[in-house]
Design a protein that fits this description.
Blueprint: H1 7-30, H2 37-51, E1 73-77, E2 80-82, E3 96-105, E4 108-117, H3 129-151, H4 159-172, E5 183-185, E6 192-196, E7 213-216, E8 219-221, E9 228-230, E10 237-239, E11 245-247, E12 250-255, E13 258-261
Antiparallel strand pairs: 1-3, 2-10, 3-4, 5-6, 5-7, 7-12, 8-11, 9-10, 12-13
Helix pairs in contact: 1-2, 3-4
């Protein structure tokens, strides 16, 4: 069932979204060569605790998962596209890291994700500049696709308009796109109706109405293949060809005045 939120409920979701933004800003500032993924998870838990919020990821168990998710955030490195579990892996210079975070505050959920490369640009001592530039183009494409999807999230439009806008950016860049996992409704729980594929045809699907709140989340695979697979941990989605992947996401409210981002990243702290 698709829920339509009132202006007051959207405002409450914005409070949860600001916690998510703070988690992502903290993760980006803290992520550096030598830092473990588990340490990033601990930093996220600190942000949640200080805000009086909880993680909708922690102990989440959808039908496909063999066990509940064990962490507060998802940390996906290099060929891991989605749902990477924070563990003892130490970030290395040049890693492509995607961080997906959620927060539940006063019964409402926010959900967002960012991708970035770790450490300074490498020269001869590590991955070459061409590889770095490929990663940056991939990350930029997911951001561009997110912006295009948000721009299409207007009253009177259709879900397919969002999917088509995202897919056009991904295909123009030659990137792989899976339609199995994509955007979704957000509200009292993290995953609600409707499902929003990252590839589709315009003017198709459900009509977009004011009060609909959705997570728009393009993720692309750098090698161009649309194929991916579930890792042995039962959670991590990896690219089938071993190429790198990137992921960008915002929770967005459709209003009479246009789309409103509820998880806008916080400005840098002084």
């Amino acid at each position: 069932m698709v829920e339509i939120k009132t202006p007051g409920e959207i405002e409450a979701m914005g409070a949860a979204g600001r916690v998510v933004a703070d988690i992502l800003a903290t993760a980006r500032a803290f992520a550096a060569p030598g830092v473990t993924l588990a340490e990033l998870d601990e930093a996220a838990r600190d942000v949640l605790a200080k805000a009086g919020a909880t993680s909708p990821f922690l102990h989440y168990k959808p039908r496909f998962a063999p066990t509940p998710y064990p962490a507060a955030i998802c940390t996906s490195v290099n060929d891991a596209a989605l749902h990477g579990i924070p563990d003892g892996y130490r970030l290395a210079p040049g890693d492509l890291l995607s961080v997906d975070a959620g927060a539940t505050l006063d019964g409402w959920v926010g959900d967002a994700a960012i991708s970035f490369t770790v450490g300074p640009r490498l020269h001869k001592e590590g991955r070459d500049e061409a590889a770095h530039d490929r990663d940056e183009r991939l990350i930029a494409a997911t951001r561009e696709a997110l912006g295009a999807g948000i721009a299409a999230a207007v009253p009177g439009g259709r879900l397919g308009d969002i999917s088509a806008a995202i897919g056009a950016v991904g295909r123009a860049g030659g990137y792989g796109i899976s339609t199995d996992l994509g955007g979704h409704g957000v509200g009292h729980t993290m995953h609600e109706d409707p499902h929003i594929p990252n590839l589709g045809k315009p003017r198709r699907g459900m009509k977009l109405l004011p009060g609909l709140v959705i997570a728009i989340e393009p993720w692309f695979m750098g090698g161009g293949s649309d194929d991916c697979y579930l890792d042995d941990d039962g959670w991590t989605i990896r690219t089938a060809d071993g190429s790198r992947a990137a992921h960008s996401e915002h929770t967005v409210a459709i209003t009479a005045d246009g789309p409103v981002i509820l998880t806008a990243l916080s400005p840098p702290r002084p």
